[in-house]
């Protein structure tokens, strides 16, 4: 995946760990694998969510898959550094669109920030359903990038965000896939489909959280700067202005940050 939006640099790999820490409370509020044993994580990246799953649910064994070798290497060393993960996970290099597992192997599945990068979320979810036992549950967490709002209005951030989303669409990904998860799960035969919009909204009531999230957001946006520059989607000047505007918003006592994403749960 040489055109992968975020790339596979060391900074990006560190960013994924930091992102999982920042977002853990919101993402995991409703996730429950306490009655599960064999859980599949699709698009596990550097193991940032895998670590959280293994820590929160001490009875599970986790099978992780990811397309990229260097993510898997980092995930292996990250999880090896946590004593509670020992002997409880395997990570395999695999394409989520063609899972190399027999059917009915797992009793739970977890996908986070991966369907936005695949050409066919339907194909991935059909594969995940095939390998799940009847009665299994699945959690899918995904972006809804049209929900991003920042005040004061920051035109270069906005321009860059449009370029970011357009690039992802051009690569056959989907920066809005979160809103469609209910439909996609139903189309693949999942039952009891439930969707919940989760939101980060920070204003002057939560100045510290607001500062942390704007900083996290800057890292997220700029993780795509190399590939967007390479493909002439943005200029060096645009990037400098994005930095400047986000720094200004971050210092503004009246700033507002808002972003919503979707978490879907369903059963087989
Ligand atoms: C944004 S990262 C998210 C990683 C992890 N879920 C997390 O939240 O930290 C997306 C990951 O999906 C992987 N990926 C993208 N397309 C894939 C596919 N078709 N099959 C398996 N993994 C894929 C990428 O290599 C990358 O590691």
- Quantity of strands, as a count: 8
- Ligand types: S-adenosylmethionine
Based on the structure given, which CATH architecture is correct?
A: 3-Layer(aba) Sandwich
Measured distance between first and last alpha carbons: 30 Å
Major sheet characteristics: 8 strands, mixed
What do we call the CATH topology?
Rossmann fold
Q: Look at the structure and give the mean pLDDT.
A: 96
Helix/strand-derived category reads alpha/beta
- Our count of helices gives 9
- Unreliable runs: none
User: From the alpha-carbon coordinates, what is the Rg to the nearest angstrom?
Assistant: 18 Å
| Structural shape | globular
In helices, the fraction of residues equals 40-55%
Q: Please identify which CATH superfamily we are dealing with.
A: Vaccinia Virus protein VP39
Count of domains: 1
| Strand percentage | 15-25%
The SSE string, one letter per element, is HEHEHEEHEEHHEHHHE
CATH class term: Alpha Beta
């Amino acid at each position: 995946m040489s055109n992968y939006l975020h790339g596979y640099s060391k900074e990006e790999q560190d960013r994924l760990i930091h992102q999982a820490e920042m977002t853990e409370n919101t993402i995991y509020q409703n996730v429950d694998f306490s009655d599960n044993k064999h859980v599949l994580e699709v698009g596990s990246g550097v193991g940032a969510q895998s670590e959280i799953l293994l820590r929160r649910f001490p009875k599970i064994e986790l099978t992780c898959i990811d397309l990229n070798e260097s993510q898997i290497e980092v995930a292996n060393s990250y999880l090896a550094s946590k004593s509670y993960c020992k002997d409880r996970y395997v990570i395999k290099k695999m394409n989520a669109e063609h899972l190399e597992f027999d059917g009915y192997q797992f009793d739970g599945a977890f996908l986070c920030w991966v369907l936005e990068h695949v050409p066919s979320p339907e194909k991935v979810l059909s594969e995940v359903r095939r390998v799940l036992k009847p009665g299994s549950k699945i959690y899918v967490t995904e972006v809804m990038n049209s929900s991003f709002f920042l005040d004061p209005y920051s035109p270069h951030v906005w321009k860059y965000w449009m370029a970011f989303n357009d690039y992802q669409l051009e690569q056959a990904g989907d920066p809005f896939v979160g809103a469609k998860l209910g439909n996609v799960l139903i189309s693949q035969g999942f039952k009891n489909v439930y969707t919940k919009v989760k939101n980060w909204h920070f204003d002057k009531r939560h100045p510290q959280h607001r500062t942390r999230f704007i900083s996290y957001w800057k890292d997220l946006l700029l993780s795509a700067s190399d590939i967007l520059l390479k493909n002439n989607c943005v200029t060096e000047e645009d990037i400098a202005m994005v930095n400047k505007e986000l720094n200004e918003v971050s210092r503004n006592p009246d700033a507002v940050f808002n972003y919503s994403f979707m978490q879907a749960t369903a059963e087989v």
